[in-house]
From TrEMBL:
Organism: Pedobacter frigoris
InterPro entries: ArAA_b-elim_lyase/Thr_aldolase, Low_specificity_L-TA-like, PyrdxlP-dep_Trfase, PyrdxlP-dep_Trfase_major, PyrdxlP-dep_Trfase_small
Keywords from the named record: Lyase, Pyridoxal phosphate
Name of the featured protein: Threonine aldolase
One biological process term in Gene Ontology: L-threonine catabolic process
Amino acid sequence: MLRKIDLRSDTVTKPTAGMLDAMMNAKVGDDVFGEDETVDALENKLSELFGKEAGLFCPSGTMTNQIAIKCFTQPLDEVICDQTAHVYRYEGGGIAFHSAASVRLLHGERGILTPELIEPEINEPNIHYPNSSLVVLENTVNKGGGACYSLAQIEPIHTLCNIKELKLHLDGARIFNALAATGDKPENYGKYFDGISVCLSKGLGAPVGSVLLGSKEMIKRAVRVRKAFGGGMRQAGFLAAAGIYALDHHVGRLTVDHTHARALAAALGQVKYVASVMPVETNIVIFKIEGNFKAASIVQQFLERGILCTTTGPDTIRMVTHLDISPEMIDSAIENIIHLNPSAHK
Ligand SMILES: *Cc1c(COP(=O)(O)O)cnc(C)c1O
């Protein structure tokens, strides 16, 4: 049987035996009553790590982002983010639906914003204009091929937001990948961001869950919003235990995923059917294929060889490395990349 090498996303990982064991042994209670000590432990662990006062465990990163946007805006406000942002593109239009806010889209280099890009887009107070109230950064940038901000790049954005009285939220779905790549310390993040979303179900390998971090006051409001969004969970400690296990066991190994991604990129850079490969900073490889091929057809031909990946446009393909990808799988994927001899399909 052909062994599948699933490079579609870092969300496809299955819990390890150790993680399942931690889940089975979790002490739980009704978290809507505030009685689940494992959920509390996860929220405390992450809020301490990132230097925020409080945390809130939620079912998904979409929910933590949408709750944060709801907490940091009023109807008729405007959210500033990059045009590639997950909060704008991949959250089902939730900003309009939940927060009745508009969105100002910027064009950063691979999704990375700068104070120079943001400042001219902040509206002056004027009844004609939506009220600019929130900037959202994504680290790493998913659609930017896993590009990351260093804290040094974030600091001046924080300063600008402070001066202009805008809130700053981090979509940190892959924040641990960014930390592994930059060497920055998580505790410094709390100083710059009003809200931080951390996903446990991406590179960290937990089956479910994200945590929203913020001030005590903000999280108090976020608990109400989560309830209204239908995200209050009962004996959620079984899931929170997977998150704690992931933080204890799966953070240090993220550099392995980054090494694997670089190896894939190096192979892709050598073959004729690939026009260019985005620079690889973390665990995402996005590449553009030559004009006489179609991305969908190349993805299909990889699939026939047991390699799963996805298109991100008519001529771009994405591969993502993660916990369930072994060095042998990378070797096998590289063999296939090098030997694939696609026929033109246009
Ligand atoms: C995956 C992801 C999220 C959250 O997604 P969920 O599937 O809702 O957990 C948020 N932001 C980015 C950049 C992501 O890649």
